[in-house]
Amino acid sequence: MKESIGSLKYIYLDEIEMKETSTVHSFIVNAIAEELAKSNEHNYIPIIIKETSADSYEVIGNSFIYEVAQEAGLERVWCIVTDGLEKTISTTKLLAREKSPKINLSIAERDDIIQALDYVINLSSSPLKKLDKSKATTKISNSPTRKYWKNLDEISKLKCGITKGKKLKIFEEIFYLTPEPFPAVIKDPAIRA
Predict the structure, then answer these.
(1) Paired sense of beta strands 76-82 and 103-104, if any
(2) Strand blocks (E) in 62-143
(3) What is the pLDDT of residues 69-107, one digit of tens each?
(4) If I label 59, which of 45, 51, 102, 133 is the partner at 20 to 30 A Cα–Cα?
(5) Is 78 exposed, middle or buried (0-12, 13-18, 19+ CB in 10 A)?
């Protein structure tokens, strides 16, 4: 298997399994599959796979292409074989835009926060369309307790325009926390109780 890692292979579609389906609407899959079938072409953008056993594979990236190839009735597809490690799978899904990146809000820099908020605001169905991203970024990045937050509900206490419900839910799609332990209170021996 090691000699296969990174190689481009032409594999029978029935040897490949896909556990997760893509989020692309069936209209898009069907329309592109029809074009692919009419042109009798190959998938020139490969499916990213991992080997599960001899002549058995699992899709880890470009699942949309797998679905189109299947719908088009292709017998064989071009694939790139990976090592199948969790880090490889995660990176592949990010590169294929099948997974969104997340930022650790506990330690995020101001520029990262404003950039991520800009992304969320510009999503087509974002409930944060009217958010003042500069004001929100300032309040979030200047919060002295942010590195200790245990959950993102603390955002709503900042009165920055991100409230509980839909706004916080979409915020949670981009940010996560790794809180530091809250420091123990140290008594000054010079102060007597």
Answers:
(1) unpaired
(2) 76-82, 103-104
(3) 999 999 999 999 999 999 999 999 999 989 889 999 999
(4) 102
(5) middle
